[in-house]
C-alpha cells in the first residue's frame, strides 16, 4: 500500500502529520481479499440438532483455527481426503499441506442456549426448540477473519428464516423448506433466526426491500415498525451515506436479548412491547448496519461500535427529549456501580459485553467518549468524520486508530492525547472538590475552591455554573491538567450556588450526593453481605446461590455486626428481617410477588442495602434473571416474572455547593406570646418541648406549658429525658407521696445519672407531686450509652442488647450531619469515634421514642408533654419522627431560644432570662474511688480552700451526712443554704505519721 504524508499548517508554531493511503484520501475503499465460505446446514427442530458441511478453498502452509464451541466434528477433508487436525477446548486447527477445497462435516445440539459464548463479542446465544431457531454462536466452524458466506439452510416445512442476505431464495418440498441466502459482502460471521409462526410484511424505500417478520398477534405493530424503520434509514442515510444493502428486515425475536446483523435487526422479546417503536433497540439495529455490519470492528484492537451506536441512538434520542444529562448521568452511575479495580479494563481492551461491568465500559464509557469528542469538535466535523470512516473502511475492519485518523483529518488536530487518556487508559475521572469558600472582594464576590483528581490525572475541561441569589447565572469553562488545582472565580452578584458539570459532559464518577440508591449499586458491589431470612428461607435459595456464585458472603441476621454493616453493601432477604429494624426502624416492603427496595446504607454512603421480599420461591426464581435489566431503579415489584412497578430515586444534578442564602426575616406584627403557643398545641397528643438543660428560664417555660395543659386535661402525663426507665418505680413512688424528696433523689440516682442541678427541675417535679401528674422516665441506662459511645454497639453483651430497641433508624443524613458538627466541636477532642457517638445518640433517641409510644399505647386517653434537650427535638429528627414512626400520633414541637431555621420546630419561644437559686458548692474537684471521696483540687476562690481544706483530703462527712460518693455530697449540699456554715470532717494523710481526722468549718 502506498503511503504519503500530508502536512497541514495549523499555526505558525505547530504542525501535525497524518498518514493516509492515497486511495483512502480519494474516498475509495481499500477492500482486502476475503475467503469464500460455503455452508450447507440441516436443522432438526424436534431434536434441537443441526448437521452441516462447511467448505472453502485453502492454500498450502496457511494454518486455520476454527472456533467450534461444543460442536462435534464428524470429518475434515482436503480434496476429499481425510487430513489430521489439532483439537483444543472449543477449537480445531487445520494445517493444509496443499491447495484445495477444505470440507468440515459437523453436528451440534442446541438446547436452552447452552452453547452461548458470552465472552465473544459477536455472540448472544444459540438454541433450537419449539419457540424457534436462533443460531448465533459456535453453530458452525467459525473463523476469526472476514469471509463471504454462502448459506444453504434446510428447515421443516412452514418455517420462515433469515440470515445475512440481500437476496433470499426459498424452495418448499414435501416436508422441508430450503433457503439460500445470497450476500456477496464480507462478514465477521453469520446468524440465523427462524420460526414457523412468522407472518411476513413488506415495504420498499428507494430500491431497498423492507420486511417485518412478526407473530400474527403483532400485525399492526409490524406495520408501525416498518414505517419507523424507513424514517431511520432515511435519517442516517442523509447523515452518513445511503443505506448500504439492498434489503432490510425487522424480526420479532423470542429471546430476551436482540441482535443486529447485516440486513437484519432482531428485536429482543421485551423490547417489542415495552419500548416505543422508535426505541433504543430498533435505532441501535439500524445504526449497526453502518457501524459493525458495513464497517466491521477490529476486535483485536477494541470494540468501538457499541459505544458509538449507544451515543448516536440512545444519547441523541434522550437529548432531543431534553433528558440527555439524565441519561449520561445514568451511564456514569452504572459505571460506578459495576466497575471496580478488579474488573476495570480500557476501551482498547473491550471486545464485547459479557457482564454488567463490561457493558458499563464498552457501551457507557464508550458513549461518553464519543460525547466528549462531539462536544470538543462540533456536530459538522463529527458527522463528517463518521462519513469518512464509512467511505474508507466499508466491508473491512476498522480500529480505534482508524477512527482517530478520521477525526484528526476533519479537525486538523492531534487527538492522540484525547484517545490515549480515554481509550487506552483504564477508568474515568474521580473528582474531589474541597475548601469551597465565598468572600467579599471590594464590590464583587470571590469564590475559591480546590479540585483534586483521585487516581490517574487527565486533562479536563470543567463546566462551572454560578447561580446568583437574585436570579441569573454565569458559566465558566476551566482547564484542569494537574492532580490538584485551586481556582478562584470573581462574580459581580452575590452567589447562591455553584454547580460543576451539571450536564454530565465529562466521563467521571458521580459523587455520593449525585448517586441515588439503585439496584445496580447493590448488584455491582464486589462482595455484598447477604443477610439470610428468618422465615420462609426456601423462598430465597436461588437468590442466595446467585449471590454466592458472585463472591458474596451469607450470614444470619443476629450474626451481623455493626462493623460488617459499615464495610459492606447489604442484601437483606425478607420483609421481616430484623436487620431492617436495626438500620431503618421500619420499612414497608411487603408486596405481592417479588419486590426490591434499595436504600443507602446509613453507615456507609458508598454502600447500599437492598431488601428483597418474595412471597413464594417461584416468584423469586422468575424475577431473578430480570434484575440486571432494572439496575437504575430503587424500587421494583414483579409478579410472575413480569415487572408491574418501578421507581427511580432522584438526586442532585451535578456537583452542587450551596454558597449563600437570602437573609431570613420575621414579621414582628405576627409574633405570638407563650399563651398563644399553648392554645395552638393543646389538641396534639404529644407536645415536645426542647431545652438547654442549665437554664432556669427554659424550665420555667416548660412548667407554664405543663400548668396550662393540665388545666385543660388533668390526665396529662410528663415524659422526661432526665430519668431512665429503671427509675420508673421511684418516680411513681415520689409522685404518689410514698417517699420524700431526699429519698427520691437518692433512690433515682439523680446526680449520678443526670448531673445537672436538681434545682433546675425541682419546680416541675413539685408540681407533678402536688397534682399527682405521672412522670415517665424515657431514657435508657447511662451505662449502655456510655459504653456504646466509647466502643460501639458490638461491645454490648447479649443482656445489654436486650435493653436496646430492635427498631433504630440510622438513615437521617441531615441529623447525622448536625451531630457530626457537634462531635467535631467537642467529642472528637477526646479521641472517640463518631460512629460510636452516633450509635449512642440514636439509641438514646429511639429508646425515648419507644418508651413514650409504649406508654401511650397502654394509656390512649392520655396526652404527654415530653421534656428533652433541644437537639433531640429540632427538625423532628431525634425523638418526634421516631415516635411517629411507631405510633402515628399527632404532635407539635416547641424549642426555646433556638436559632430560626426553616423546619427547626413548630414554635420557638424566647423567654426573658431568669436567675435561679442553685444548691451551694464547696468549689472542689473530687475523685470518687470505691466509696472514698478525695479532693483533687479547687476552683477559683474556693470556700473550702479558704477554710483550710487541702488537696488529698478525704471527705468523710458533711454535718451529719456520711459521704461515700460524689452523689452523697451533692445530695447533702442540696439541702443547705448559701452563707450557711457546715462542718466537713476530712481525713488527711501526713508524712511518716498516722492519718489525721479534722473537722473543718466551711461557710457556703
Descriptive report:
The protein has 28 helices and 51 strands. It is of the alpha+beta class and 1004 residues long. The protein folds into six domains: 35-195, Immunoglobulin-like; 295-424, Neutral Protease, domain 2, CATH 1.10.390.10; 431-509, Immunoglobulin-like (Sandwich); 524-647, Chitobiase, domain 2; 677-909, Rossmann fold (3-Layer(aba) Sandwich), CATH 3.40.50; 924-1003, Roll (Pdz3 Domain), CATH 2.30.42.10. It has an eight-stranded mixed beta sheet with strand order 7-6-10-4-3-14-17-16, with no helix packed on it. A seven-stranded mixed beta sheet has the order 33-32-34-36-35-37-38. Helix 7 packs across helix 8 and helix 25 crosses helix 26 (880-887). The radius of gyration is 39 Å and the shape is elongated. Residues 1-32 and 113-124 have low confidence and may be disordered.
How far apart are the first and last residues' alpha carbons, in Å?
Answer: 108 Å
**Approximately what portion of the residues adopt beta-strand conformation?**
25-35%
| Overall body shape | elongated
DSSP, total strands: 51
Which strand order spans the largest sheet, edge to edge or round the barrel? 7-6-10-4-3-14-17-16
Structural class: alpha+beta
Parts with pLDDT < 50 across at least 5 consecutive residues = 1-32, 113-124
CATH topology descriptor of the largest domain: Rossmann fold
Main beta-sheet strand count, sense and barrel state: 8 strands, mixed
> What's the helix count?
28
Given this structure, which CATH class of the largest domain is correct? Answer: Alpha Beta
Q: What is the number of domains?
A: 6
The overall pLDDT average reads 91
Q: Any idea what the CATH architecture of the largest domain is? A: 3-Layer(aba) Sandwich
Helix content bin:
25-40%
Calculate Rg over CA atoms: 39 Å
